[in-house]
Amino acid sequence: MAQQANHALPAGLQLEEYTITRQLSLGGFSIVYLATDGEGNRVAIKEYLPNSLALRGEGEIKPLITADHQGAFRYGMKCFFEEGRALARLSHPNVIRVLNFFRANDTVYMVMEYERGRTLQEFIQTHRGEVTERFIRGVFTRLLNGLREVHSHKLLHLDLKPSNVYLRSDNTPVLIDFGAARQTLSTDQPMLKPMYTPGFASPEHYGSRKDLGPWSDIYSVGASMYACIAGSAPQAANERYQKDTLLPAMMRWEGEYSDRLLEIIDWCLNLNHFYRPQSVFALQKALVETVTPPTPKESPNWLNRFVDKYKKASR
Amino acid sequence: MRFTIYQESRQGGRANNEDRITYCYSREALLMVIADGMGGHHYGEIAAQIAVQTLADSFQREARPTLADPFRFLQKGLTNAHHAILDYAERHRLGDTPRTTCVACIVQDSIAYWAHAGDSRLFLMRGDKVIAQTKDHSRIRILLEEGLISEARAATHPDRNKIYSCLGSPTPPEIEFSRKTPLKHGDILLLATDGLWGEISGDMMAITLKGANLVHAVPMLLTQAETKGGPHVDNLSVVAVRWEEAYVEEASSSISTQTMALDEVATHIEEFGRDPAHKTDLSEDEIEKAIEEIRAAIDKFNPRKQGQ
Description:
The complex is a heterodimer. Chain A is an alpha+beta fold.
């Protein structure tokens, strides 16, 4: 009983000053396109198009929204605006930049910067089992710079996971997809619970969500670091509550990575949010302060790999 | 759509069976109905038959292959059944109209919708727990809720079968609707008449059915209830379905060409506006204003670099 997928806008279509190149991805709430602006710069355009509420047939431009769904469609649009508002206020090299926001075809569009690269998830999948400590420390320290900026605006990302971390070609990370981001301080609006991703969502995501805080994003950071090493998502938090079968990083990879890094991962993955780093700053400090030399077991491997690479390159 | 379904109705120790049950499905929607014709009134089984037939007929007409609005379908179906029973009574000049309870459930897009009048029940079971059930429209339930009588007394109370809402009564039925309830893989929806739930509690049934094959486990439940109820046990009926498809949608999209998750990761998304209070309308003006606001914020915080 698959829901009918919406058809993407055709290549070459003009939207304001942008020309659609192709579809980049299709999600439950939106379609993302690669496009070029008037000056030929590449941009990514996110189109608000909830699958269940708006339907666009093949060859059509405007989606069909039945009268029944109009209310819900507009409600979802509010959430889309919230994402736009959240991102517009953030200006940071490690957070995706919003360039424009406009209305067309009975729906709304968000224009974002586009750069060549791949998601952290794609990286993990192609480098399964060989993600180095240096890479993890490097990516996450910079990623946390972006997350600090997010938190300093009283925002929570709430859907942090490797597929929402984009790596530029020089491996600088960029936080993307703020579809779940919520303002923490506006209490007049009921807390919305739009989505979470099992494995990366903190225990506070489940249930009443009143305990959500910076520590919830920090759990997701820990889960993402864990996934970097394991190659797959850790056990979902709600299942861990039933029966915790998640092997602590410290037990699983002792000797392969520095004790400090493994400790930090386990620290972030504490089920009790009080026992996690309480702020991004605290976590970041831990990540950079002790650069313990890699354990002897690790070092020759790392060196050999480097030497191999060098040999290959010189051949 | 994948599911296992089983239905059965037994006469018990009574002279005739006034329960009626049915289920029908299209490629993308499933309907289940149970009606318990009321013995105190004449032709209870006719009322039950009309109720079940009316809903099944409209389902066959309208589920092509989905229903436009499941709640509306249930509301229309139950109201039409009520009127069909009154018409029948008038045509046949019956002094007292036949009456029936009714509980009906639709599953579509892995979301369950149900409605009921009277004391036939629907249970939603997850794992070995009942996580949702209908509230009987009976005086005894109100007394229980208000703490005026104990559970033990309720079981033997003379009014325990008296209900205040049903189809076919001269006063229009009070139809109670569920919320839109997303089903998870392995969830069981069980519709039962009081002949069954009166003997075996919902919790007990959930424990029995957990992980079991419905086709074997449900008849065992009925036999158990028959034995417990003794020689004069009421009619007992059940329709049970085990849902085998999770309500899972892809994660909200991002800039990556692939938003596929690691191994088994999927993002669960709750329906928009499940809570009607959230469905505050956004007017044209508000949309324009929101866009203006965002653009102003972009200009202020993210001045566009030329030729980036």
